[in-house]
Amino acid sequence: MSPDEILTPAAVVDLDRMESNLDRMARYAADHGLALRPHIKTHKSPDLAAEQVRRGAIGVTVAQFREASLMQAATDNILLAHPPVGDPKLRRLVALPATANMTVALDSPEALAGVVATARAHDLSFGVLVELDVGMQRVGISEVSTAVELCRRAHDADGVDWRGVMFYPGHIRQHVSRQDEAIAAVDATLQRFLEALRQEGLEPGTVSAGSTPAAWSSHRLRGVTEIRPGTYIFNDRTTAAIGACGWEDCAYTVLATVVSTAVAGQAVVDAGSKALFREELRGSDEAGYGALLDHPDVVVRGMSEEHGILDLRGTSWRPRIGDRVHVVPNHVCVSVNLHERVWGLRGGRIERSWPVAARGWDNLPAT
Amino acid sequence: MSPDEILTPAAVVDLDRMESNLDRMARYAADHGLALRPHIKTHKSPDLAAEQVRRGAIGVTVAQFREASLMQAATDNILLAHPPVGDPKLRRLVALPATANMTVALDSPEALAGVVATARAHDLSFGVLVELDVGMQRVGISEVSTAVELCRRAHDADGVDWRGVMFYPGHIRQHVSRQDEAIAAVDATLQRFLEALRQEGLEPGTVSAGSTPAAWSSHRLRGVTEIRPGTYIFNDRTTAAIGACGWEDCAYTVLATVVSTAVAGQAVVDAGSKALFREELRGSDEAGYGALLDHPDVVVRGMSEEHGILDLRGTSWRPRIGDRVHVVPNHVCVSVNLHERVWGLRGGRIERSWPVAARGWDNLPAT
Is the ipTM of this complex over 0.85? Predict the structure, then answer.
């Protein structure tokens, strides 16, 4: 099928670029002896997770239970990188297939107690990683002694298998040429945690890092055993802006149609915040919510839910009504999540398509 | 079922508030002799559209084809308020049931030509509204003579029925106490269009206005025959901040669970940008991406995809891990669109639930 036949806005992926992105990260991990556990929140597709596993990923990272359930089609080795707090989620944890090798991340005695009680009540065992804060200040324990104490509890508890620690260095979003200092700071913080654990006889089997922007520097964080990048499969305008990929590595775009040129200095496409998402470019001073793949100087200056305003003031390019454009969004993970199917292009044709199977939220404890 | 049984994040609606919101807008329209054509992009549910029709709505407004297809369960009177440009969309227009009384909005001769050719090729007839720009500068014609010329073309063309004009005064987002000047400016602009049309013997049967923030002032725009508010069914933090509803009229919230309190001065809930959406508060200086229904001074200061950071620095309220909170998002339409089911609460129980049926995008010309 030709992409000209589909209605816009549509989520499309250049398959050659995607495969090259997958290969590159797999090679990086292998070259540095790091386990690769991709975060599948970016694509939410068991098919693409399977492609990651085929390239050597040891398992996947997920953020929520729909993702955990569906990814079992690709692997039984799953890290839930979000504390499963409260009865409905703990019931859902139990409802996962018995074959699942589940590890959960958490940062509090309360969350640990819930997982332990659930495991014991159902005669199950779950892996546990204790989440550390290495500067992101989102979740994770920043106090070394508090972290050691929680690792000790997890290590000693029945029903759970303490597997180590994880952290998310999402704050390292500087341009790669300026990342050195941030990486050094994370490394110094991490060593304090690891030394304290070792002094207590707690040797973490897993030290898990994450995030695409920092992924290529992961080998410089001493003691790290695995990485959890997500965005790298598709990349996006942010990743390119900070230099963690090239513009030509952006595999995902939203295909859009020019629907109005009535207002001077702009053209309006049918992809707005319900197709691109609304997120400022971070780690960069550039403006707009996305840019055209073939005219990166043309940015999406403003949006409504179904309208994207292309800024034509700095370009001689003048689209006509009906023209189609490929928009690279600032943040790919949240754009993919707005579409239920992605169309894979190669050689100007739609070669395959796949559902964004794990988009949305399961609200019922068992499904 | 108790809401305590569902997994968070979850989209929930206070049914009493929703019904009161529906009644209030229906009463306003009836009191002022305005036809009510709600924009269903807010809820994307045929069930809720049917409730709007039962309260006197003459039909609905939609922005895209999945919405158009599904809303026929509630009404055959549908306005597609987005130019249907390009063959795939025109084929989809033809594929709608023959019983549909479809009107499309457009602002260019190119878009009109496509609709006319499609109608004639298939021996169909579509209503047409010409979209005017009254200051929003998104889509719509701002030049009076250009607008008159397009109305003339639509009026004279076979295959389409020129029904009038529409505009979207979305730029009137000032606090209601400061809206007077903006309303007067829109009114003055509108009269220029209407007078020019009448001088040409083109009497618009429909003059359609829109948007919840300005809806309550629609009777002050001379010549307006119908209004297209969407947000009013649920309301949101923006609508309350500008005074177009009270905080107690916010019917929609995202139910979330506190999952981490590890970092001082904040609590982390499991609702982030994939549950709340990410949109700055507009028309107000207040910060954050949402606020707690029961503690409006506690705002969502930052977000990741599955993490919302509650700012506790200005409050003595201290949640515990496992506590549940109701978050009012800044913009309800884009938050609802992230969930596939909404849970309706009354008296502390889940009374009903409904699918967000029209979320996502149809990419195939016929389904």
Answer: yes
